[in-house]
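#data-curation
PF: Archiving a pair of folding outputs for the training set. Convention for this channel: one message per protein, sequence first, structure tokens after, nothing in between. First:
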Amino acid sequence: MKLQFKSSEQGSLGSICAKRIYRPHVGGDWHFHKEFEIIYFLKGHGMRIVGDHISNFQKGELVLVGEWLPHLWRNDEGGLEAVATDFIVIKFTRMFGGVDLFSIPELLHIKALLKEADQGLLFSKKTRKSVHEDLLKLAEAESSEKLILLLSVLQKLVVSKEYQTLSGPNFSLPKEVAGENRLHKVINHISANFARDIKLNDIAEIAAMTPPAFCRFFKTRTNKTFSLFLNEVRISKACQLLINGEAAINQICYDVGFSSLTNFNRTFKSFKGISPSSYRDSYSNFRQHNFKEVS
């Protein structure tokens, strides 16, 4: 894949891009862009990568992604696990008409929040409910109403103070587009092929590097080893299947790329602190209860 970054979607007459999207699935590339991004899922579930953080997304998730922070939301296309997605995406920059809007004294508290978004921010259920109506309106708004609603949403996010950071503080943000295509190819390949046996030599070849050089490169860019990153992707997918599917655990083990059940159970417990069966039990009523939080 040659994609390096996503350019602005804002029109020549607007500073804010806000839209509601319905898709049978979400995929795309691990990408970054100069805009801040708010993404709010009204329906759907799958895998999420924000910087060096890998986990799952579910209905009701609200995330604020900072400038240049690489991210990816993905679920399966087709198959029994596919679920239609319905989400709102808002993209905006700090510059409005050539002026840094968030540098004015009245908005410095929002500027501080946007700085924290360098790591990606995942907001609580309470906070999501407080901005639900504003986000729905923002996706349909025009002209000055967009800015008014965006500031309203950001103000409520600041006031709530109920969020967690996602990416680690040492994750290396891509300051320049040039040179990042190599990492994009690697992340895209991992996210699309994690169920297969991905050898170090093979992934190093995709990056056009020797294995030792690739290991140093990947650790510098992501603050993680290749094997750790790959296992996080696999365990994230396993969690999704455990929560939303009825497949047997020994089948899930092989479906996400592990070659033995023993290795899968040991790796899963090292990441989640409990066994796959205990994890499934703890989410036995997930869809019946948690999916009702946004009307």
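PF: Second:
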Amino acid sequence: MTNSSHFCAYADYTLCSSSSSKNPTISTSRNMPLNHVKLNFLSKLPRTSFMLHLKLIVCKAKYAAEPELEGRFTQRVVPANLLAAEKEEAKAVLTLFLKRQGVSSSVAARTINKSDSFIDHLLSQLHSVHKARYLVGRELTTLEIRDAIIPYLESLLEEYGGLFMDVVENFPQLPVDEKLDDDDDESSSAKEVPTTQMSTPANDLDSKKLKALARVNDLGSTGKLPPHIVYLVDIGMELEDIKQIIRKFPAFAYYSLEGKIKPVVEFLLDLGIQESDIPTIINKRPQLCGISLSENLIPTMAFLEDLGVDKRQWAKVIYRFPALLTYSRTKLKATVDFLYEMGLPSEHVSKVLTRCPNIISYSVEDKLRTTAEYFRSMGVDIANLLHRAPQTFGLSIEANLKPVTEFFLENGYSMRDLTTMVSRYGALYTFSLSENLIPKWEFFLTMGYPKSELVKFPQYFGYSLEDRIKPRYKIVKDSGVKLILNQILSLSDQEFDKALKRKIKKI
């Protein structure tokens, strides 16, 4: 057995066996039992070399377990085309990281070409960090991918130092550059090394968060907060909110005031955003402050304006969904192409992006297209629905759409009735079944109208039960007349009074 094979066995031994077991099972990363494996050679390593190899072992053993854990998640949730795109993003992030360490472009390119296994490992890390986002069908932005991968790379570099390039190129096969020394003291057995000495990337990341927070908590010798923190407090951000951002996004603590934060804030102010709204925007999307104006923000806005997005709406759009500016133009174009594919004219595409900018965050294949197929199977005009209620396409088919469909079918409506209702009121499916549809349905049954009245006026479900429906209906009932739902609910107070008086006169 080669040294690297022995290392694999020891990694699984340390991770899988119990110290209380008299005869622990030693297995490889493929769970193949290895009986009578001798690990005495580890005791012959110098202590520094031993600890370095042990860290590498843990890294490899962790990777070996991922196909069993994260692999199923990745294959089940992330489509092949998205995986391919994320792989390219991961390569770009790793290339940039290597260059920052002083590696030339040519060497970085050669390293990337030999690092498929390590790239796959980075993707598994990404999917582990953002699992919840994938489960609801939301794709990650380029910045989110970068923010998940770079801290992990930094932690590996800090641990493995000069062996970092070897780890990248040979992963999961571990580099062994130290020769065994037969004269070393055999008393330094591997099993005697406390596990607490083994540093992990997660621990390093926690350490980075603590160091970042210290920039806000500890004023240091100057007695002052960093300039960009002072600036943010001056424009209305709460210090505790800034700390919360740093806990989630440590890099924010090190942003330059003049190079990053101030130019972005001034850029937002120039768009017409109120200074009082800036704290809310930064709280929603602190990564926005780390994006290049010239390379990202301005080109993205120009792209959207070319689509017809009204410049006068920018302040409202960004306040509602600041993440819009952090998506790549490739992602923006994919969503826009889908809207055109569904039959929306250009003026409607711009309105959809203005009214519901977060539609950009939904996966085209896993969310938008599958939702379109669901409504198409019902006979719904997809272009009309997208135009009227684009927010519907962010809902879960299983958790939101199907239960609403079943509710109406169970209460005597046909699929054709439901299609008509959706075409007349696209927001119908956006309401909570338990908190909205059912209570209003139960009250509707007491009003004495035929069920067909809701097919004619499904907007009934959009009015407040306590503030609009019940008070207006009581007035009509007390008057001894009957008005259609549309007249009861959609008219202004003045027009409602006029309609009621006209009806009373006819009695």
